[in-house]
Amino acid sequence: MAHLTPTPVIEPVQDRTMILNMGPQHPSTHGVLRVILEIDGENVVRIMPDIGYLHTGIEKTCEAKFYQQVVPLTDRIDYLCPLTNNLCYALAVEKLLGLEIPPKAQWLRVLLNELTRINSHLVWLGTHALDIGAMTVFLYCFREREDILRLFEMVSGQRMMTSYFRIGGIALEPPLGFFDRVRDFADRFPAKVDEYENLLTGNPIWGMRTKGVARITAEDALALGATGPTLRGSGVDLDLRRDMPYSGYENFQFNVPLGKEGDVFDRYMIRVRELRESNSIVRQALDGMPEGPIKADAPKVVLPDREKMKTEMEALIYHFKIITEGFSVPAGEVYQAVESPRGEMGYYVVSDGTAKPYRVHMRAACLANLQALPKMCEGRLIADVVAAIGSIDIVLGEIDR
Amino acid sequence: MAFTPPITDVEQLKGHPALARLRDWNGNAVQGVKFDRDEMTIYLERAYIREACALLRDDAEFPFNFLSDVTCVDWYPSEPRFEVIYHLLSTVKKERVRLKVKLDGSSPVIESVTSVWPGANYFEREVFDLFGIRFTGHPYLRRLLMPEDWEGYPLRKDYPVEGYR
To answer: What is the pLDDT of residues A268-293, one digit of tens each?
Structure first.
């Protein structure tokens, strides 16, 4: 539907090469990525990603919504890490408003963000291994992912489209027993990562499919705008959680895993080690969870508690005004970036002083990372293209928005 | 929620590394500055954008060596209508700076920075696709997200949210 021109966008340059179309409906393209390949036998001469099949115009839609109505839209951008998107948007608008977020809300945000990172990396690991031919890992990963989705359901009422972080804090207090269940998960999880590693890390077939495959140098990765594990796999030490902390990340101790070779195996190792690091951050967040409110003290922005609405006139009035008129945000602009499981996710929000954002732009980590694909694949075998696409960890919802 | 008003005086901000570097290089390139909510914005003259980016990238002491993002804002119906926005990051010093170029609605053309950062390719194609800004010197300026035969530029403010159909 998206591209009505059926002809390939590139023509073969030599007689001996041919054009091969891969996707948009292809099991290894993780959604609707279309890749046009020029091949010489089994070797890739040129490769061109074609995107836009999932474009839904979210940026345009945001301009017609109140600030608080944009939160559910952000879930749908990157459906594997909705809470990271919620957080990034909320932080951007809070910076525009100048809101102070209470510590408990910040720590809860960190806790859930790291659970989201584990969730996203598990989906990545399972599908990536499946692409390369290791079926078992997929089933193992989705077993643990199910636990995390149950935690999300418990805390926000939704498994995937959580919308749990609101502007000014968090929607609800986590239910009784939530922290115990998270701790239970965090205690069990490291042994599960060992299981995945037993299946893959030392596996000679996995090594042959990943080691030395789809290399990219640090210079190329930086110049192409790659971030996250795709950049760190090449040895560039950049993690926004540590380098430009947000939402209280400066209170947590964690390592940033780095690769050397910049190949698929390094990117795999980084994500597996990040699973353990994220689990450790989850435990730190549980141990040090402060007490206190979960919403900022800003009655004109944050919805009041239901209890107060039944007893206090002001709370009822504010609730009515926020729902019907929204809240106005002082004019200005903010670029807020967070470290999503895929790299630098940035929200650029422009306000003109009204209750609706003048412009919301999302800097999609995958969009930039995808540009590294030609560098990784050209001159290599077709089978390696599948490994390379998997190793970038693309989410088409985020790329196309 | 009291705010300190944005600082727009060039002299007050001249200590900022990116601004100092740009002013040393060419006093005409910088049109204005804004420091608001801890974020630095430098308004540049349209003709100098590619050279300014190369200069900031290659600076020895304070390199803004990473292009985070290129986007655009449409201020229809006021003129100059478009603002093309570049978010630069220094991976060494962990600092950000925002470059802005204003473009008229009648001739929204600007030089591409793909020769400085190849990663600008998709970002500029997206801006071309959704705003109709033309980037000269871009290697492959085609629509990125919308269909090839789409009419109009959806993120412009005179384009209805529901579309024309």
So the answer is: 999 999 999 999 999 999 998 888 88
Residue B112 lies in a domain: yes
More reliable by pLDDT, A274 or B5? A274
Question: Do A346 and B68 lie within an 8 Å CB cutoff?
Answer: yes
The verdict on a CB contact (< 8 Å) between A60 and B122 is: no
Q: Nearest chain A Cα to B162, which residue?
A: A61
By the 8 A CB rule, do A22 and B122 touch?
no
Mutate to test the interface with A, among B3, B92, B145, B158 (most CBs of A within 10 A): B145
- Whether residue B63 lies inside any domain: the answer is yes
Residue A89: pLDDT band by 50, 70, 90 thresholds?
very high
B109 within some domain: yes
* CB atoms A225 and B120 under 8 Å: yes
Is the distance from CB of B134 to CB of A41 less than 8 angstroms?
no
Number of domains in chain B: 1
Omega before residue A103 within 30° of 0, cis: no
- Digit-coded pLDDT (tens) for A197-224: 988 888 898 888 888 888 888 888 889 9
**Domain of B37?**
17-136
Contact B91 A337 (CB under 8 A): no
Domains for chain A: give ranges and CATH numbers. Answer: 65-368 (1.10.645.10)
- The verdict on residue B146 lying in a domain is no
